[in-house]
Amino acid sequence: MQKEDLDFFKIWFLDYVDQFSSPEVFIQENVELKIKHTARVCENILLLAKAENLEEKDCRLAESIALFHDLGRFEQFTKYRTFKDSESEDHALLGVKILENAGILSILSREEEDIILKAVGYHNRMEIPKCTETTREFLFYLKLIRDADKLDILKLVSEDYEKEEEFRNPALELNIPDTPGCSENIVADILNNRMAKLADVKKPE
User: Fold this and answer.
1) 12-15: long-range pairs with CB below 8 Å, 24+
2) CA-CA distances (angstroms) from residue 97 to 71, 81, 125, 133, 154?
């Protein structure tokens, strides 16, 4: 990927998200939250990519994935007023649809376009596809975006929970009461090095 390709994507992204600016404070705050989140995920993925000694062209591909990974969030939140896929629609698949309809990735090679679309589409999945010879490179970039994304989500959520309850962002809340105890299923998953399920994040019995 060339530098001018990434520059074009950044300009397109800003033009795209600008249409979701709203006079409604709740929507505007969360549109801005996702713009800032995207910028930090771009920073995170570059740190990870450079730590893996990727070439500049490959770093640009990684950054493009980060730039587009939450593209569907803006339409999702404006339409449904929530970031919960279970109460709206899969934001990753929505992002893929937006990219395909816009056709902006056609300036890239077929391989690069395919990696971006698949990485965006799978970045929020509970499980990732099994690695094969044909998916090895895609799997590498998918792991990069999942790690870069989760690093910032951890930051966002932990900072929000440090606030007094009345100042927290309801769009980030799971509406679980702050009571003693913990979910046994979540603890078991952590101890057994397994992915925890959102459905198990609940008030202890």
Assistant:
1) 12/102, 12/104, 13/38, 13/67, 13/68, 13/71
2) 10, 20, 16, 26, 27
CA distance linking residue 83 with residue 98, whole number of Å: 17
Q: Tell me: the pLDDT tens digits for 40-74?
A: 999 999 999 999 999 999 999 999 999 999 999 99
Residue 116's H or E segment, with its range, is: helix 110-122
For the chain, the farthest-separated pair of C-alpha atoms sits apart, in whole angstroms, at 55
The region that residue 21 occupies, defined by phi over 0 for left and psi between -120 and 50 for alpha, beta otherwise, is: beta
- CB-based contacts of 35: which residues, under 8 Å, 6+ apart? 17
| pLDDT computed for residue 133 by the predictor | 53
At 92, give phi and psi (nearest 5°).
Answer: -70, -45
Q: pTM for this one?
A: 0.88
Q: What is the pLDDT of residue 163?
A: 73
Distance CA 118, CA 154 (A): 24
Distance of alpha carbon 91 from alpha carbon 74, whole angstroms: 9
In this predicted model, what pLDDT tens digit does every residue of 4-26 receive, in sequence order?
999 999 999 999 999 999 999 99
